[in-house]
Amino acid sequence: MKIKFLLVFVLIPFITFAQEIQPDSLKSSEKSWKFAAGVSLLSNINHTRQQEAQPIELNFRYNIKNKHTLRLGIPLTLNHKIFGEPEVSSGHTVGEMPALDYIKNMKDGDLYPFYNSFYKTLKNEYSLYGISVGYDYSYKLMENLSAFAGADLEFCHFSANAKYYNIHYINMSDNYMASMTSVIFINRNINSNAYMCRPLLGVRYQFQRLLIEGNLGYSFNKRKFYGDMTLDLGYQGGNNEIRKHKFGGYVYNEKQFNYNINISYIFK
């Protein structure tokens, strides 16, 4: 969010400079504009199923005769860190204890006496990038204010990488005479391609060279997942084993109401 507002403030010197040297053109620019570029300020659009935070989204608009607008958007997140355990599912159980409760008890020192497991995370992060193209038709409500209806089509790619150790201690008897320790190094890659169609309604307000736009939309998403995992299994006694797995073919279809507010600078 700080980066988004920083990008907005970068535009301020351009606006001040334009006000000082081109007052007449500013007045005319409020009546018609051609090209604008900016950034989203607020949004709850789920570009991918796994995103933890909203990406930076650059927006570009090209206006034709004050009624037709071509839309271009670029969502982008680079190396966003994922916090928490890298491999815990609320549906998984350790013995009769849910995995999340087991991890909590383990951290609190109340260890299960026969089977202990914990993680050492080296890396757990994701990146996201995409492109959306669209069109909207606008209707003038009053001076510098118009309503519009349109649609966006988007493609987005998600890539996550996790490297961590999964350490197990297994005690197979009450007197601790039979036990085993295993250390598993895991390198996991998860990817997804997402396709979205988003009809939308919104309003657009122009103030000198600033263009403020807000819209509500309903998105139809289709996402396909694929990835791979490499396991280096080290057992007590020095015997190592390498296993490689590939997975994919998981398809999800989702629908969502969402909103987007962005601000742009008009280039005459």
Automatic annotation (TrEMBL):
Q: Which organism's genome codes for this protein?
A: Bacteroides sedimenti
Q: Where is the signal peptide?
A: 1-18
Q: From what superkingdom does this record's organism come?
A: Bacteria
Name listed for the protein in its UniProt record: DUF3575 domain-containing protein
Which keywords are on file for this protein?
A: Signal
